[in-house]
Amino acid sequence: MKVDVRSPEVTESSLPDWAFPPPGGFTAEDLDRIPQLPAHTELIDGSLVFASPQASFHMRAVELLMIALRRAVPADFRARREMSVVLGKRQRPEPDVSVIHASAEHSPEQTAYRAEDVVLVVEVISPESESRDRDRKPALYAQAGIKHFWLVENQSGRPAIYVYELDPLARSYVLTGIHHDRLKLSAPFDLDVDLTEIDSL
């Protein structure tokens, strides 16, 4: 007997309501109101952006930086992973890692931070989000006034970290260094990370 295993046809009526953006696009507040929205959904230019399955390098790079940042941040800062940041009415990206002012924590149910609460954002490049990670998201972070931005590249399984600081007049980032085996910085605070430790994670 032959069994038809084709997927059922996707029709407009079978899609959830949030699959259809409202006029003008979604707003940052909509992400907290849409039922059954997939985890780690971002809002870029009023459009929903969904997360793809995470690669091993991406997960380990984030873990390496989180361990280092939690050890290094001063008492009035906190390191966070995968928490969205409201940059404007239709902009709510979710950096892989961020450092915030401790005063930005308001409740255990909090789902986002404001741009002015954030001192550092980090994006680990994924193949499916490369253009957003390299171009659109850094531009949005800079326009929102976030002072420090790191971009993490996969170079043969090891992280290469491009460190940027904000030019406040141009509202754009300036490259201050590229770090391969060791990340040693004095801003936004003292930090010294052996990037080769990713091999043991």
Keywords, separated by commas or semicolons:
201 residues, alpha+beta, tt1808, chain A, 6-stranded mixed sheet, 12 strands, 15% helix
Provide structural commentary.
By secondary structure, the chain is of the alpha+beta class. The protein folds into two domains: 12-49, no CATH class; 56-200, tt1808, chain A, CATH 3.90.1570.10. Helix content is 15%, strand content 31%. A six-stranded mixed beta sheet has the order 3-5-7-8-9-10. It has a two-stranded antiparallel ribbon with strand order 1-2. The termini are far apart. Mean pLDDT is 92; it is low at 1-8.
Helix share, percent: 10-25%
**What structural class results from the helix and strand content?**
alpha+beta
Average of pLDDT: 92
What is the CATH topology of the largest domain? Answer: tt1808, chain A
Query: pLDDT under 50 segments (min length 5)?
Result: 1-8
Gross CATH architecture of the largest domain? Alpha-Beta Complex
Protein name: Endonuclease, Uma2 family (Restriction endonuclease fold)
Organism: Streptosporangium subroseum
Domain Putative restriction endonuclease: 29-189
InterPro entries: Nuclease_put_TT1808, Restrct_endonuc-II-like, Uma2
